[in-house]
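ok so for the tutorial part 2 we go from a plain amino acid sequence to predicted structure tokens. step 1 is just haveing the sequence, like this:
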Amino acid sequence: MLREVTLDDIRPIAIGAGILGTGGGGNPYLGGLHLASVIREKGSQPLVDPFALADDALVCVAGTIGAPTVSIEKLPEGTEMARALRLLEEHIGRQFDAVAIAEIGGANSMQPLIAGLQAGIPTVDSDSMGRAFPEIQMSSFLFGSDAKVAPYAMVDAADKAAVIPSAVSDLWGERIARNIAVSMGARAGLVACMMSGAQLKAAGVHYTMSLAHHLGARAIEAQEQKSDVPQVVADVLDGKVIFRGKISDVNRRTTKGFARGWVRISGFTPLGPPEASGGSLEIEFQNELLIARINGEVVVTTPDLICIVTEEEGEPVTTEALRYGTRVAVIAVPAPEQLKSEIALEVVGPRAFGYDVEFRPLPGGVIGLRPG
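step 2 — the prediction. this is what the tokens look like for a chain of 372 residues:
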């Protein structure tokens, strides 16, 4: 397990979290630049084993809410997470003992590190998704738990801030937060989902920061050895490369605080391996990649992970970075067990996103398991 995050750890985390983010979570390169600047100022950030937390410790989750497409053009002020954390502490009249990861995807994997450094508290090596999802109620911390989204605090890059003391449901907490985020320019810092150490231990997807680091380090090693990086990534995650080809069309729009659309990938000629034998793969997304069809047949759906990486380097390709002509590989990865329960599938399964298909889980999986 990773014990602290230093400057040397940023690149592997950015690659690994970018892949685990299934296209969402914010641009990992920009997130890495932000984290590097804070580490240079304040030093490395301690990373806590979730089972080392006291049961009565008070923990929050931190992340950015909005459309990933906006994050490319609207850079953060830099202290949104810490300001939101302090605002929520002021509201509840108590300080937090640690900050957990809302989602291990992309730049949102780094926001809890930044928030912890700026607030002077450690970050827990646990998140609530083992990937990224577009809405804040899509969290294992909330599935069948007493934890709630609200109260939560939101802060933008200027001086606008809000505290939502309660919501009738976690879904309504998301809808309120989404509308506030849109009014803040479709990007805001969010600190939410207060819970005890005992609740985090029971519900979290653990050791995902360590997994992201390990995955990124293996990808970098494979790049240096000029190996088949997408296949190495798939092996590390107990997944499978399901398609290789070139992006032939992208339909992407920013609406209601999300990046929505689809990407079409045309397969290479039949001269390559089976996953590169021509045909077409189409993936629909709402910030994150949600459902993949090969020649019209559904092959992978949420909550299993659909990951797009560059075909040669195995670098993650986020939804805002999808471009015509990019040569890519698509990897299907089994979701963590916390996302496959009946309660969880009501929130993160294909029908939760409007797809009238059954979830057929991929076999195996390593996300959420203690590192060896």
